[in-house]
Amino acid sequence: MTQLSESDIRSFQQARGLSVTGVVDEVTTRALEESRWKLGDRSLNLQESPLMRGDDVAALQSRLSEMGFDCGRVDGIFGVRTESAVRDFQKSVGITIDGKCGPATIIALIRLTKIVSGGAPLAMRENAMQRNRGPALANKTIVLNPDGTDELVYDVAVRTEGRLLALGASVFLTRGLVNNPTESERINFANSGNADLMISLHEDVYENEKAHGVSTYYYGSDAHGVHSIVGERFASLVQREICARTDYANCRTHAKTWDLLRLTKAPTVRIDLGYKSNPGDIARLSRPDFRDVIAEALVIAIQRLYLAAEDDAKTGVLRISDLRKAGIRP
Fold first, then answer.
1. Cβ proximity of 143 and 172 under 8 Å
2. How far apart are CA 130 and CA 52, in angstroms?
């Protein structure tokens, strides 16, 4: 492999939605490997762990999705759902049905004209699933993921949990007060519980104490031209609610391809509640009343995610008591 300069590495990380560090860490190494493959370079099939990954898998998923075949999220990982979509495609065009994307399947993909474009079926499915769940929180499963062993974000998670439970939601925390599961364990926990939404709570840190404010992240990849419709909307709702109710600086929402966002099946949003390296942000989050405000903002953002547009309210004005009055609880 050609030796990459730090500038090249940073540009690659930026384009792939990774943390821009200029260092070729484990995640960047894997992304570099995945970027080597273009559709047609190799035969794609379902394997024992580790599953096949690459830009060729993402291209296959995008093409299938555009044609209306359900392979789930375009994540560049050849899993069971992608194999099923390949089988459905093979059946529809009358070629051998084996779930493998080899030369015959590639040729069929190239020959066929797109039925729809822009990944619309995936967006429609994601939105339809959200609508079908209804506005009430009583049938929702929410996973809260407090980072590391940070006591402050854990406390925000507990305060949020209590409010959601009062509204009838099923709520699960990925960790207790002192244990610290790996990221993989947290992802598996959310996936095994068939969660409707996963919220990951963090504090950021930077070498310069001037960095401050709140930011949110959702799954999105410019390289693959995909993003989580529900994840993006929820990230925007959370960002707006928190900034409307607090004096946190608005560091906006961002699309990323971090494993937590990419591999969790449910729409997942990471929220950075200020910077540990900024005295002002530390002082804010250290106040119990401030953490109460954050918890209420999170609950309202969750409810707004499931409300129809005509039932929604202006940012920063909806209260939990309003939800109870409206009967949005068991």
1. yes
2. 29
Token digits of residue 122: 């995936």
| DSSP string of 225-263, one letter each residue | TEE-HHHHHHHHHHHHHHHHHS---EEEEEEE--HHHHH
Q: Domains in the chain, please, with CATH?
A: 37-117 (1.10.101.10), 133-325 (3.40.630.40)
Query: By the 8 A CB rule, do 226 and 73 touch?
Result: yes
What is the pLDDT, as a whole number, of residue 330? 39
Instruction: Choose among 237, 238, 209, 232: nearest CA to 220.
Output: 232
Locate 230 and state its tokens: 């529900």
Per residue in 124-178, pLDDT (tens digit) is 555 555 555 555 677 889 999 999 889 999 999 999 999 999 988 999 999 998 8
The answer to whether the predicted template modeling score (pTM) of the entire model surpasses 0.85 is no
Chain CA centroid to CA 81, Å: 18
213-237 pLDDT per residue, tens: 999 999 988 777 777 888 999 999 9
Nearest one of 1, 25, 2, 160 to 10, comparing CA atoms: 25
Helix 229-245 vs helix 120-132: angle between axes, to the nearest 10 degrees?
A: 60
**261 closest CA partner among 164, 183, 176, 163:** 183
How many other β-carbons are positioned within 10 Å of the β-carbon of residue 318? Answer: 21
Confidence of residue 311 (pLDDT cuts 50, 70, 90): very low
Question: What is the spatial distance between Cα 298 and Cα 157, in angstroms, rounded to a whole number?
Answer: 10
